[in-house]
Design brief:
Helices cover about 30% and strands about 20% of the residues. The protein is an alpha/beta fold. The strands form two sheets. The protein has a seven-stranded parallel β-sheet. It starts with a strand and ends in a 9-residue tail after the last strand. The structure holds 6-phosphogluconic acid. The site of 6-phosphogluconic acid (6PG) has 13 residues, from loops.
Length: about 240
């Protein structure tokens, strides 16, 4: 699978480039299938992009938004990825509520929530158990420790290859996360990576060889485009 690494000056440039790539993916998907499926990410990295997307005059009735991972908290919690995404993007556009495919977080057992989200995705795409549907565009960030989505170093979630969604874990807190094979199946995977704190992990993730348990982003081997700023690449601004 292809990997493209692009180096930009700062987060504003990354966001403009990401917006352009979103537009291209949207146009292509609409032309082909009359529908655009995009997977949102949490964290700070996508915030400017979401603000820019909120200004776009898209046919939002044809856009379907999913999340790659979620903290196991209600939507009203400031840590909720869904809450953040709605506040700065989805609440500002005319997207039908049925097109917003949020990760459920209301069951006592996160494993049940993971299974429910998996079933929802299968029903949406009309795929059978064991099949991995193809999202049009998958947005991702990467933590300073090399994690992506809620695929944290040395956790069981990294090994799950027969499910679409599983339970992740961070400091004893449950998370829900899409699995490695589901992410890798996407038509295009867009990483947004900013800041010097990520330089060490980024170098390890992009190196030809390395430890997938220590740096889980290495597991994302699909069609990836890495939008990195100079600080993350350990380079000076031009
Ligand atoms: C989340 C994410 C997570 C995030 C990275 C990077 O829910 O927080 O999905 O994987 O993308 O931790 O976060 P920043 O963009 O804040 O650096």
């Amino acid at each position: 699978m292809a990997r493209q690494v692009e180096i930009w000056n700062d987060r504003a440039e990354i966001a403009s480039r990401a917006l352009l790539l979103c537009q291209l993916a949207y146009k292509e998907a609409i032309a082909k299938n009359e529908r655009f499926t995009i997977v949102a990410t949490g964290g700070n990295s996508p915030r400017i992009l979401y603000e820019l997307l909120a200004t776009k005059d898209w046919d939002w009735s044809k856009v379907h938004v999913f999340w790659g991972d979620e903290r196991y908290v209600p939507i009203t919690d400031p840590l909720s990825n869904e809450g953040m995404t709605r506040a700065i993007w989805l609440d500002r556009v005319a997207i039908p509520e049925v097109n917003i495919h949020a990760i459920p977080t209301n069951s006592d057992d996160p494993a049940i929530a993971a299974a429910q989200y998996e079933q929802h995705i299968q029903e949406f795409f009309g795929t059978a158990a064991g099949e991995f549907p193809e999202f049009d565009l998958f947005l991702l960030g990467m933590g300073d420790d090399g994690h992506t989505a809620s695929l944290f170093p040395h956790t069981n979630a990294l090994k799950v290859s027969d499910r679409l969604v599983t339970v992740g874990e961070k400091d004893g807190q449950h998370r829900i996360t899409m699995t490695v094979p589901l992410i890798n199946q996407a038509k295009e995977i867009l990483f947004m990576i900013e800041g010097a704190a990520k330089a060490k992990a980024l170098k390890a993730v992009l190196a030809p060889k390395g430890d997938i348990n220590q740096y889980p982003s290495r597991l994302i081997t699909g069609n990836t485009i890495w939008l990195c700023d100079r600080a993350a690449m350990n380079q000076k601004k031009s």
